[in-house]
Automatic annotation (TrEMBL):
Protein name: SMYD2 protein
Domain SET: 30-205
SMART domains on file: SET
Residues covered by region (Disordered): 750-769
InterPro entries (UniProt xref): Gramillin-biosynth_MTr, SET_dom, SET_dom_sf
PROSITE patterns, sorted: SET (PS50280)
Length: 783
């Protein structure tokens, strides 16, 4: 890795090195020389005009060590002649030990040094070294190496180092140089265009802080006072209490909206400050003029009012929320500020990369973002390093597709910013302005019709849409300057605004499609599925649901009809029951005396009374008991049979006949069924009449027989006492026997008139008609 000239360093390899790693790479000394700088001691200046990004020098660390161990490591190296040459030893002790710590020697000679190998001679005596002095030199000149990890390629631990040439670089709150650490080397480049003799400066502390914090930080850490034009202007225009209030608010802000609101507040504060410039003291105005400010004044003041951390937080939050287009713009705006504050330092490089990556994810056209990030990285690390850094971050394939077709053409403003860059040339004496040429580079989103320009005293206002820019003129304006010659340049072609806009839209669409091919295909399939579901499946499903609903409604309607019919039929049935029970009661009036005449209760009582002997009395008693129980059983059974026959006639037989009628349809009743129903009904009516006339005797006989048989199974008094349980068993037995006699054995003759016994003489028992019989059995089971 021997550089033939300044740009022959192999950055692909250098970028892979861990921070602080020793290298064999040759140092480089470019267009720089040592000079006295008023108020600062020695410093490095440009030996000729230098272009932006030009390599100024490459310096190898004299010593690298863990932070906190640098002093010991440096002492050991200085003491040992095998490791530290006399020339290096002398150069080290020519370094500043801090302001006011003794006179500075003449300019040390700048030279390139090869990496020194430890000498093999074993017996060289060690040097004696002033520990205190070494400590002071390190305090004034040491660098921490943990800011170089821009590309996130290297894991920078907490390492400190001391460089012999780079230690001649003074601090500025508007640095002119950018440095990066690669291995044990420091690369220093021009961060702006430099004129011959212009000082090469670096930021010892963060120059993104307000002036009072920068002053205090330098005083505390390096022990010298800051006297700079930036600080003078800032102190005069930005009142410290107002900036402190902003900083306090910054600590309390929690949401994106609050950050955005705070950013707007800071911008209002800064715009108010700029308007105060014309009424500021002559010293402040001269300091502003020396800074050569145009838009830079706004940027510097925004930096001093704390806009950068607010903007970085806003960008990070937008990125986190997936609002990538806005995030890309916010990072671009950070870069826009850095152009003035600390161009091409590690932060600037980081935010240029973030803007590019967000724009890529947002599907924005990348040409400008690539060009800008390429420019910033070229000035921060070296030419062509964007590709290497992207490859390490995104991988070979993605970085290649991101960079495809984009030339690394260097553009001098951050993309994504609705704004203008300007070069301002004035003619006439300094101190008054009567005519000027202004050249605006508009970005493609701005047309000249959207730009308004007005001049007032030292300020020239340029209003682009909602944004206001202030240009501080190098002298007072005498009246309205005439003529203002304005030329517009840049990609914002206004000749064919519609066509240009259309082409831009198509281009963006095409880029988007190319980038998100797979997602678009998947989205198309999903959208097709949703369309099918909505247009085809949904109407079908709705129709099916509608049909089912109608069916359910019909069913519920018919079931309610059914239940009404059931209610009606039940009411009719109950009414019929009442009617038939009434008939049954009337029938019993003639039945009762006949039934009573069938039982000889009085005679049995008499026999009990008349019996003298105990056993005869018991026999008489048993006969009385059987007669009474038979009367009871016969009476109950008769009542039931009587009710039963009437209910069968009025309800059951009638209902069965009606049911058959409705099943077959009105008027469709078969003749055979009709005749059968009529003959069954006649059987029942005849049976009822026969029962009421002849039944008492037959019931009494059946009851007596059943009681006699049951009394043999269930002992009765006086042999045994009875309780409700034994009585219940007894009567169940009695009625079962009566059932058998009357129904099951089909000795229906007891209930049937002799005329019904059609097969009389045939040897067969007479029976009920099948329908009447079924109904009767149902009813008996219920009873
Ligand atoms: C790293 S040295 C820079 C070179 C130093 N001027 C010299 O002559 O060796 C740091 C010292 O330079 C001086 N210095 C650097 N920047 C300065 C500044 N902006 N204003 C005043 N003194 C500065 C301070 O004395 C500081 O301690």
């Amino acid at each position: 890795m021997m550089p033939e000239n300044a740009e022959r360093y192999d950055f692909k390899e250098l970028l892979k090195l861990p921070v602080g790693e020793a290298t064999d790479v040759e140092e480089f000394l470019g267009p720089v020389q040592v000079a006295w700088v008023p108020g600062k001691g020695r410093g490095l200046v440009a030996a000729r005009d230098v272009g932006l990004g030009e390599l100024l020098f490459v310096n190898r660390a004299f010593q690298v060590a863990e932070t906190g161990k640098l002093l010991e490591a440096t002492l050991r190296k200085l003491e040992d002649p095998r490791r530290c040459s006399d020339e290096e030893f002398q150069s080290f002790f020519r370094l500043s030990s801090g302001q006011g710590k003794g006179p500075l020697p003449e300019f040390p000679e700048l030279k390139c040094r090869m990496r020194r190998r430890d000498s093999p001679q074993p017996d060289v005596p060690l040097r004696s070294v002033n520990r205190r002095l070494v400590k002071d030199i390190l305090d004034s000149n040491a660098h921490e190496l943990d800011t170089s990890d821009v590309a996130k390629l290297q894991s920078a631990g907490k390492l400190s180092s001391i460089f012999l040439t780079a230690s001649l670089v003074n601090h500025s709150c508007r640095p002119t140089a950018a440095r990066v650490f690669l291995g044990d080397l420091m690369f220093v480049r021009a961060a702006r265009d430099l004129r011959m003799g212009e000082e090469i400066t670096d930021g010892y502390i963060s120059v993104l802080q307000p002036v009072f914090e920068r002053v205090a930080g330098i005083r505390k850490r390096y022990g010298f006072e800051l006297h700079e034009d930036r600080g003078v202007v800032e102190t005069a225009l930005l009142p410290e209490p107002e900036v402190r209030a902003m900083l306090r608010e910054m600590d309390e802000v929690e949401s994106l909206e609050e950050f955005q609101a705070l950013s707007e507040k800071i911008q209002r504060l800064v715009h108010g400050a700029i308007l105060r410039l014309p009424s500021a003291s002559a010293a402040v105005q001269q300091a502003a003029q020396r800074l050569g400010l145009g838009l830079g004044l706004e940027k510097l003041l925004l930096g001093g009012a704390g806009e950068v951390p607010v903007l970085v937080a806003t960008a990070a939050l937008l990125e986190h929320l997936g609002r990538l287009r806005e995030a890309a713009q916010a990072y671009s705006r950070c870069c826009w500020l850095m152009e003035e504050l600390a161009p091409h330092n590690a932060y600037h490089a980081k935010w240029a990369l973030e803007a590019l990556l967000c724009a890529n994810r947002a599907g924005l056209p990348l040409a400008e973002y690539v060009a800008y990030a390429g420019k910033v990285l070229a000035c921060h690390i070296g030419p062509g390093t964007l590709e290497t850094v992207l490859r390490c971050q995104l991988g070979e394939k993605r970085s290649r597709s991101l960079l495809a077709g984009h030339s690394a053409q260097v553009r001098s403003w951050p993309p994504g910013e609705v704004g203008i860059l300007h070069t301002l040339h004035t003619h006439g004496d300094p101190g008054s302005v009567s005519s000027m040429d202004l050249e605006f580079h508009l970005d493609e989103k701005v047309s000249p019709a959207e730009v308004e320009i007005s001049v007032n005293q030292m300020l020239l206002y340029v209003q682009v849409r909602q944004k206001c820019f202030y240009l501080v003129l190098p002298g007072k304006v005498d009246g309205e300057p005439e003529p203002i010659r304005l030329s517009m340049r840049g990609p914002g072609s206004v000749r064919w605004p519609c066509a240009a806009a259309l082409i831009m839209v198509v281009q963006r669409l095409w880029n988007f499609v190319k980038r998100h091919r797979k997602k678009l295909i998947a989205s198309g399939i999903i959208a097709g599925g949703i369309w099918y579901a909505l247009r085809v499946y949904l109407p079908r499903a709705q129709q099916r649901m509608f049909d089912e609903l109608m069916k359910a409604l019909q069913e519920s309607g018919s079931s309610s009809d059914d239940s009404k019919a059931q209610q009606r039929s039940r009411a009719r049935f109950q009414e019929n029951q009442l009617v038939s029970d009434d008939y049954a009661r009337k029938g019993l009036r003639s039945y009762e005396p006949k039934h009573a005449g069938c039982f000889k209760i009085d005679k049995c009582q008499q026999e009990v009374k008349e019996a003298k002997a105990k056993d005869k009395k018991i026999i008489a008693f048993k006969a009385l008991q059987e007669e009474c129980l038979s009367l009871l059983a016969s009476a109950v059974y008769s009542i039931h049979v009587n009710l039963l026959l009437h209910r069968i006639i009025n309800n059951i037989a009638g209902r069965e006949a009606r049911g058959r009628l409705s099943q077959q349809g009105a008027g469709a009743t078969s003749k055979a069924n009709g005749e059968e129903d009529a003959s069954s009904m006649k059987e029942l009516i005849d049976s009822t009449e026969y029962f009421l006339k002849e039944g008492p005797e037959r019931m009494a006989a059946a009851a007596r027989k059943a009681v006699k048989a049951a009394a043999e199974a269930v002992p009765l008094p006086p042999e045994s006492s009875v309780n409700s349980e034994s009585l219940s068993t007894f009567f169940v037995d009695v009625f079962n026997r009566m059932d058998q006699d009357v129904w099951e054995n089909q000795k229906g003759a007891s209930l049937l008139p002799p005329a019904q016994d059609q097969e009389k003489g045939s040897g067969k028992q007479p029976t009920f008609g099948p329908m009447a019989r079924l109904g009767a059995i149902d009813l008996i089971v219920c009873l």
